[in-house]
Input
Amino acid sequence: MILELARSKEKDIVSLRRLLHQHPEVAHREFQTHKILLEHLERLDAEIRAPIAGTGIVVNIKGKKGGKTVALRADIDALPIKEENDVPYKSLNDGFMHACGHDAHMSMVYGAALILSEMRDNLPGNVRLIFQPAEEEGTVGGAKPMIEEGALEGVDYILGMHVWPELPEGTVGYRSGPFFAAADTFTLDIIGKGGHGAKPDMTVDPIVVSSRVIEALQTISSREIDPLEPVVVTVGSIHGGTAQNIIPDRVEMKGTVRTMNPVTRERMEETMRRIIGGVTSSARASFSLNYIYGYPVLINDKDVTEIVRSNLENLIGKEKVVEAKQTMGGEDFAYYLQKVPGTFLLLGVYNEKLGYVNSVHTSRFNLNESILPFGSAIFVSAALELFKH
Ligand SMILES: [Zn+2]
Ligand SMILES: [Zn+2]
Output
């Protein structure tokens, strides 16, 4: 019944998705997106608060019977990627693309809102829509400022969902407990003493020291942390030197640290400082480390996840509901889950037959739009179930 109701909204849902897909905007600059969303949300029988946290929007669909409040969250930003899909709704904003599917997230939440606002007279609870900027930004993000400006006030439970090309189309991935990693970043400068490339004894070569530092950092996961605890230390950028025969003064690196356990996360900066300090001092070099805390570990609430999982099995069939693997990716939905119980789901969109096989964050990512009303139905069904708890 909910699935059919959602299917009847397919045209509206897909047309909003295409409009959003044509106008991708990066973190904190989602002005057109904000405008398009507002124009659509104003058609609902609902209370709107905008702007919030820059380009965010909060909507209240209040049932006439009171009750619990369930929040549905969508992120709204896109990525600086040039789209290579040849589709009629291709990005009009050259060099930018909804390559993480946040256009799908917005339209699925919108679809759920269309259904729920029609049910308003008999709705046994309230629904809060949270359209949040800057999920891709990585450090401050959009969820935290939204919470600081009151987006979660009065909310009992929260639900979020990400389209996921690692799962087959039509399946839904759930997971209790830690799910997405804490995503911290760092900049590291190795400071030596430059000179002639043929007279290394007169210098402190930061390039040789950097290579030892990078290797030594890899021993954190293999020799410092419980092997059953996932840890990633990646140096993703390294710059130093100008010519083949000059030893530079310094080397600059950037990297990311991913952990799945908040206790392990706490140890990372200190461990890195000790190891980098040891390697650099043994070579007469010094260092400067700027460790930046990003999104925390995303931890799904056990009870809510169980309620939603069993509701999903009834809605779409047991075989379509799968326990998802943990991912070392970050997601600022984590901040909401620090405040209210909820769960973050993955919606499978991999479809080999139709050619939807590309990962998120690539120039050819796309999905079968008929999955979108299905996502809306999941939100509606889960919200209705959570009203009872
Ligand atoms: Zn992304
Ligand atoms: Zn995303």
Observations:
- The pocket of zinc ion (ligand 1) is lined by residues 100, 136, 360-361 (CB under 6 Å).
- The chain is about 35% helix and 25% strand.
- The CA atoms of residues 78 and 98 lie 5 Å apart.
- Residues 182-295 form a domain with the Alpha-Beta Plaits fold (CATH 3.30.70.360).
